[in-house]
Amino acid sequence: MTVGSNAGPLLRAALGEETPSFVDADGVDLITAAGDRVLDAISGVGVTCLGYGSTAVAERMAEQARSLQFVHALRFETPVQHELAERVARFTPQGVDSCFFVSGGSEASETAIKFARQYWLARGRHDKWRIVGRWPSFHGSTIATLSAGWHKGRRAANQPLLLDFPHIEAPNGYRGCGHCRGEGRCTLECAYELERVLLREDSRTISAVMVEPIVGAAGGAHVPEPEYFALLREICDRHEVLLIADEVITGFGRTGAWFGMEHWNVRPDVIVFAKGISAGYAPLGGIAVHQELVAGLRSGAGRFEHNFTMAGHPVACAAGIAVLDELGRIDAPAIVRRHEAALFDALGTARDVPLVGDVRGRGFLAGIELVEDRDTKAPFDPKLRAADHVARLALGEGLLIYPCAGGADGVGDHLLIMPAFVTPPERMPEIGSKLRRALERFAAEVL
Q1: I need a surface site. Which of 112, 258, 291, 385 has the fewest CB within 10 A?
Q2: What is the pLDDT of residues 272-328, one digit of tens each?
Q3: What's the per-residue H, E or C state across the chain?
Q4: Residue ranges of the chain assigned to CATH 3.40.640.10
C-alpha cells in the first residue's frame, strides 16, 4: 500500500502516522501508485454514491467553469443555482423546497442553526436561540455544530468553546439507553425525554431540535423504533420548536428513500443535506426549508443574514445538477432497496466472529459494533483503538471501511459500511469476505 510521507508542508490529522495514498479510481475501486485496487465500501465516507469516473458530471462541471466559474452569492445569482434548487425540490417533501447552497455538511448544519435563529427573530421571539441535540450524534466541525452534536472525542479539544445546548439520548436498539437498558425493549422514553428537556430548559429559549434520521459516525447506524420520529414531531409542534433533519449521510437515496425521514412519514421543517448531492465531484451541501418558514422570514427581517464566500458556487451547483439527474435516472432508492439484502447477507457472515456484537442499519448504511465480550457487550479499551486497527487490516485485504469510536458515553468501537449505489451486487460477498478476514485477524491478536 502506497503511503504519504510525514515530511513536507501538508498538515495531516494524524501527525504521527503514515497515510494511505491513492492516485486513481475505477468504478468502485480506488487505485494506488503501485496499481493495487481497493474496493471502496464506504463511498469515500458516504460521498461517492455514483462511484468514480462519471464523464457526464465532469463535462457538466467543465461547461460551467468555461462560461462562469464564480459570482458572490450574497449579492448575485446564477441560473445554475436556480436549476439546482429545482432539482432538489423534486426529491424533498412537499413544501420543504426553498434551498440555500454551501460547501459541505458542517456549513449546511451551521446554516440550519442560523436560519432557525433568524426565523424566530423575525417572529419577534428573541429568546429562542438554543438547539436541542442528541447524544450520540454528529452534525459537523464548527463550534455551533459541535455544540448541537454529541461526539465526545470530537468535542473534547474544543469543550471550552462550545455553546450551552441541551441534549437528549438517541435510540440504541443494541444497548438500550438510560431509559430502557436492553436489546428489543424500547419504551420510547428517549422520545418523551425531549418534552422533559423542553420543560426544564424552558421551550421559550429553544429554537430547534436537530436529529439524524439514522445516527451515523457517532453511533454506528442506529435505526429508531417506528413511532419515534412521529412523537418528536408532535412534541416540537406543541412547544413551537422547529425540527431539523440532518440528512447529510442519509439524503439522496442511501437508506432506500430519497430522504431518511420518509421511512416514518415525518416532515421536518428544515432538511440538511450534503455528501450524495455532488457524489464527491465538488464541495457542495445545503438546506431545504419549508415555504412557511421562508414566508415568516420575508415578512419580518426580509433577509437571511448569512454567507460563505463559496456558497452557491456555480461549478459545484453544476456538479449537483448532473449528479441528481443521474441519481434520478437510475432511481437510486430503488437500487438500494433491491440490493440491501445482499449487502446485509454479506455482512452477516461476520456475525460469528467473537468480537462482533451487532450488525445493524438500513439500505446502504450499515454499522458493525465491536465488543471485547459478546455476552456482556463490554467494549474494548479505547486505548486499543479497535476500529482503527480493523480498518487497517481491512485495507490490507483490499477493502476500505470507516472506523468510528464513541457512543453515548464516548466509549466503544464500530465500523460503518456505505457502498456506492452502483456497486455490482456480485461484489457484495467480496465486502463480507474481506471484512471477515480482517475481523478474524484482529480477533486472533486480541482475544
Answers
A1: 291
A2: 999 999 999 999 999 999 999 999 999 888 899 999 999 999 999 999 999 999 999
A3: CCEECCCCCCCCCCCCCCEECCCEEEECEEECCCCCEEEECCHHHHCCCCCECCHHHHHHHHHHHHHCCCCCCCCCCCHHHHHHHHHHHCCCCCCEEEEEEECCHHHHHHHHHHHHHHHHHHCCCCCCCEEEEEECECCCCCHHHHHHCECHHHHHCCHHHCCCCCEEECCCCCCECCCCECCCCCCCHHHHHHHHHHHHHCHHHEEEEEECCCECCCCCCECCCCCHHHHHHHHHHHCCCEEEEECCCCCCCCCCCCCHHHHHCCCCCEEEECHHHCCCCCCCEEEEEEHHHHHHHHHCCCCCCCCCCCCCCHHHHHHHHHHHHHHHHHCHHHHHHHHHHHHHHHHHCCCCCCCEEEEEEECCEEEEEECCECCCCECCCHHHCHHHHHHHHHHHCCEECEEEECCCCCCCEEEEECCCCCCCHHHHHHHHHHHHHHHHHHHHHHC
A4: 55-330
How do residues 174-227 score in pLDDT, each as one tens digit?
A: 988 777 765 557 788 999 999 999 999 999 999 999 999 999 999 999 999 999
| Domain 55-330 CATH (choose: 1.10.1740.10, 3.40.50.2020, 3.40.640.10, 3.30.200.20) | 3.40.640.10
Please report which confidence band the pLDDT of residue 411 belongs to, taking 50, 70 and 90 as the band edges: confident
